[in-house]
Amino acid sequence: MASLPAPPLLFFPLLAVLVAAATLVPSCEAWRPWPNTLNLTAANATAGVPSRALDIGGSKRFEGSSEFVHLRYHMGPVLAANITVHVIWYGTWSRPQKRIIRGFIRSLSDDSVPHPSVAGWWRTVRLYADQTGSNVTAHVSLGSEKNDRLYSLGRSLTRLSVQHVIRAAVSARRRPLPVNPRGGLYLLLTSSDVAVQDFCSGSCGFHYFTFPSIVGYTLPYAWVGNSATRCPGICAYPYAIPEYFLPPGQKKRQPAPAPNGDAGVDGMVSVIGHELAELATNPLANAWYAGADPSFPTEIADLCEGIYGTGGGGAYTGQVTVDGRDGAWYNVNGSGGRRFLVQWVWHPQLNYCFGPNALDQ
Ligand SMILES: *[C@@H]1O[C@H](CO)[C@@H](O)[C@H](O)[C@H]1NC(C)=O
Ligand SMILES: *[C@@H]1O[C@H](CO)[C@@H](O)[C@H](O)[C@H]1NC(C)=O
Ligand SMILES: *[C@@H]1O[C@H](CO)[C@@H](O)[C@H](O)[C@H]1NC(C)=O
Ligand SMILES: *[C@@H]1O[C@H](CO)[C@@H](O)[C@H](O)[C@H]1NC(C)=O
Ligand SMILES: *[C@@H]1O[C@H](CO)[C@@H](O)[C@H](O)[C@H]1NC(C)=O
């Protein structure tokens, strides 16, 4: 991933090195939710005006389109069976916070929601199939949940101890999470007071599969952290603005209001979407990715970080909806009238990033 020559998505070389050095345990990263080709003169663009700095010219589509992107299929399975997302709440979570994330997961298969919807966003993920001709499933549901309120492995987790938290959840004496290797996905969510290896410095989330030697089974899982107190400007952008995202002589820009009233958790939603899309299309790190190294794959959501709407790229989110009532930024509707901002994913037929709120479909 670190070496992928995709012009709109070039990473700061320093970050790439940091991650390459730190990632001893293989995993699939979610980087910051916007690309690192930050051109400070383009900072205004996030306020809604595409900047000249983002104009790459020609007839090329901007949203991630590039002749350098070679997304390839590597013969492994995609998640074709009905997906059940089992959630582990690690640390301290409020009921409203849990409701936002549950609402997002439940929206993934809710076709009754008005366009553009979360289920419409998942439709692009469903375009991916494996060599048996099976597509990613349309059916994603919320499974069992487990609370780890007492921080069973402490307030600082490593890549490996994340798997120990999952082991504890599936082997608990009271109400263990079901072991469901066919369609089960395990989503470990850490509260804002928990540090995780490489959190904020290189990633906002990652996914991989558990090792039988630790957990007893090979289970696809993802970790996503609440960045609210550690690095919201990195992992909950645009609901928080990083300090250095400031052209000289300009006033600090106000962050966009979060649609569900919680910047940290509203920011997590896009990272959770990113990880679920990649788990579905590359669950065992041998299906859909670009780049030559399966330890550092560039997957369908990596290609579209920071792109939430038409014209997105660089420092510009792309066109999203700003709600006239409260100013909240979002791009998809969810169940129960909820609104979410979810990054786009790579469309395998169009060969650029795509989402249900695209203006030119
Ligand atoms: C940013 O926006 C302000 C106000 O609209 C404008 O005065 C300024 O020139 C803009 N800066 C850039 C770099 O576009
Ligand atoms: C940033 O964007 C401005 C305005 O388009 C451009 O003049 C400048 O060269 C860009 N800087 C970099 C480092 O790309
Ligand atoms: C998958 O989910 C759908 C919708 O909930 C359901 O109708 C179907 O029976 C499920 N399939 C299996 C194999 O469980
Ligand atoms: C399944 O995948 C194929 C490509 O592999 C695609 O053409 C087709 O539209 C997909 N089906 C659905 C329902 O998305
Ligand atoms: C769905 O989203 C559109 C635009 O993003 C918005 O105009 C509409 O009001 C939303 N519908 C609901 C029910 O929230």
Automatic annotation (TrEMBL):
Signal sequence span is 1-30
- Annotated source species: Colocasia esculenta (Wild taro)
Top-rank taxon: Eukaryota
- Main location (coarse class): secreted
What does the sequence similarity comment in the record state about its family? Belongs to the EXORDIUM family.
What InterPro entries does this protein's entry cite? EXORDIUM-like
Pfam families in the cross-refs = Phi_1 (PF04674)
What is this protein identified as?
Protein EXORDIUM-like 3
Reply yes or no: does the keyword Disulfide bond apply: no
A GO CC term assigned to this protein in UniProt: apoplast
Keyword annotations from UniProtKB, A to Z? Apoplast, Secreted, Signal
Compartments annotated for it: namely: Secreted, Extracellular space, Apoplast
